[in-house]
Amino acid sequence: MNASAFIGQDAAWREWSLALQSDRLHHAWLLAGAKGLGKGGFALAAASELVREGGAPVDPASHPDIHVLSHLPATDDEAKKKADGKPYQTKRNITVDQIRGMIRRLSTKPTMGSRRAIVIDPADDLEKGAVNALLKALEEPPAGTFFLLIAHQPGRLLPTVRSRCRVLRFAPLGPDELGAVLRRDHPEADAALREAAVAAADGSPGLALAVVEHDLARIHALMMRILHLGDDDLRARGELADAMGARPSRDRQLAVLELARATLASQLREASPHRQAALIEAHSTLTRLSAQAPTYNFDAGLLILEIGGLLASAAMPRDAARHP
């Protein structure tokens, strides 16, 4: 594994590699940065390097000393969908039972070598009881056990958890780096779509890929139109609903929610204090909707109208829109 696999995150990989080569590797790492920067893939690659014995390749999905804790399927029926490779709904949080089960495994030695990795993705979504249980493991980690905690919003974690971790920060990517990600993963995509994805992504490769995969360029253009011109006659919201489609997949709905959040965030840097307050309020509501979307069956038509309404509530004042 090398830094070239993580376009734009080579500094983070160098920091991890140097630490891995040292005699005193810290036992807990906090991978911090906005959603969509590749922290999950990075954690799996880092875990693979951590447990590697000799030169043998490591598959993080099946290695017995790499344990990944993430959202479980919401119900038994959803678990069956997951087993069949179908889209499935998840629980809202990583539960205390998952953490307790992980802690019980720590009472035994690693299976294949001297190290094991615990990846929690994302640590932001741990239940309160799960955080307290994890804290005990972080305070007294068994020998050879290393934690990789992924955090999209590190501020949501307890200070006592953050203080026990070495922070590895992930920065947004620049336009050239985003373009390189899209050319690597979607070489067949139209150049205009890739260009629109870079403009929409606000530095997030995950979002840029989603824009290409779900063809969201028109939706982004409509979002920007609402933010700059408002939508008093509801016409733009109707066009948004048409662009969304009558029966969009859950993945498409989640991608549109993330796109709306990023679009709002991109306006904050140059907004007046009054408009910043409206942007932040709309962004907070979208963040709540994004957290609920994986576990709730939203009506797709109502959801896109809600998104359009939130964008309209944060629209640029008309005088500023006429005189940029």
TrEMBL record:
Enzyme class of the recorded protein, top EC level:
transferase
Q: What is its EC number?
A: 2.7.7.7
Give a GO biological-process term: DNA-templated DNA replication
Q: Which GO terms describe its cellular component?
A: DNA polymerase III complex
Q: Spell out the InterPro entries in the cross-references.
A: DNA_Rep/Repair_Clamp_Loader (IPR050238), P-loop_NTPase (IPR027417)
Q: Which UniProt keywords apply?
A: Nucleotidyltransferase, Transferase
- Quote one Gene Ontology molecular function term: DNA-directed DNA polymerase activity
Instruction: Indicate whether Transcription appears among the record's keywords.
Output: no
PANTHER family assigned: DNA POLYMERASE III SUBUNIT DELTA (PTHR11669:SF8), REPLICATION FACTOR C / DNA POLYMERASE III GAMMA-TAU SUBUNIT (PTHR11669)
Protein name, per record: DNA polymerase-3 subunit delta
Which organism is the protein's source? Novosphingobium fluoreni
